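[retry 2/3] Acriflavin resistance protein: previous attempt timed out, resubmitting with same input.
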Amino acid sequence: MAEAQAQRLAVLKIDRTARPRRKLLRRWPLWVGLAVVLALVVGMAVVGRAPGVRVAEVREARPGEQQTELSAAGYVSSRRRSVIAPQVAGRLVEVAVDEGDAVEKGQVLARLDDRDARVMAARSRAEVRAASQRLAAARATATRARNDLGRAEQLARAQVVTRASLEEAQAMASASSAEEQAAAAQLEAAREAARAADLQLSHTVVRAPFAGTVVRKLADEGAVLAPAAIEQENIGGIVELVDLGALEVEAEVSEEQLPRLELGQPALVFLDAYPDQAFVAKVRSVRPAIDRSKATADVNVAFEEIPPGVLPDMGARVAFLKEAVPAEALAKQDAALRVPASAVVQNGGESVVWVVQDGKVKRQPVRVAEKVGDEVALAQGPEPGTQVVVAPNGSLRPGRKVKVRPEGG
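[retry 2/3] Acriflavin resistance protein: success.
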């Protein structure tokens, strides 16, 4: 009886170990659905993200590229360029020129307060006059003493005067002669002092040491200036003067490239201000010193004819040539267009580049003329300045958005 009752109770007992399993079985479609949605979201984010690309600009080939031995960057300088400062200290009372003025050699640039210098010059001239009078008096005394000595010698020969009187006359003549010489020396010293005072007075007028153009005005009236500065540039300067007729390009060339250059070697200069023009030049000199910090030497390149509008400190690039380029060749390009060789890829049997425009890429066919170094010359392709993708990968599709990476990125 008890056993039968226990069996009936066992049937009514709930099996709690099976309950969680039934719940998990009921929820598995929900977990699968969430995983699918998450995968779709991640996939769409990856697909929709704009890939980063490196770009280069299509450029026109410069004249003389085929003959270029090496190239170097530099800037326009002048063989004659100076900060003009006074030779004496003083207060500036006049600046007679302004920036941009052309001046001749010896032209007055500025004047200093000359009142003290004029006083010193007048005093020196007065001392010259005084010394001249002293010399005249000494000469008169010396002349009288010499005459007295002559009479004393005659009287001594006639035994009219004593030996002592003769010796006294000789002493007076010798002393007066010495005084005459001293007065003459004092006059000469006074004259030299007067010349020095006049020179100091002339230094209050600052003149141009050479013909040139005023490129900077460094001081105005009222400034108190010291003599020409040695340790710091422009301290005490009034104007900066440049000879625009002696312009050249100073380029930095690495020391291992120097053996490839020689004096008189032909070159072409390309100025940043006039990128579409080439100017004929040649190597004028190589500075006989190496910049230890940069391992470069300065090479001076002289223009064959100084082009109008060129100014000091303009940026420039110099192409050192294997041989001179004829003048008529400067009017045309060696090849129409240049792009990095890695930008040109094969697609469907034709050469193409990927052009970046408005943040999207498009495929554009090109016609390759020849390979030049790490570039290719294009006989047909995008306009100069167009951005093309460098080393494109297979993920690019027409119309896809891209993100341009900076250089080195």
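[retry 2/3] Acriflavin resistance protein: Residues 115-157 form the longest helix (43 residues).
[retry 2/3] clearing retry counter.
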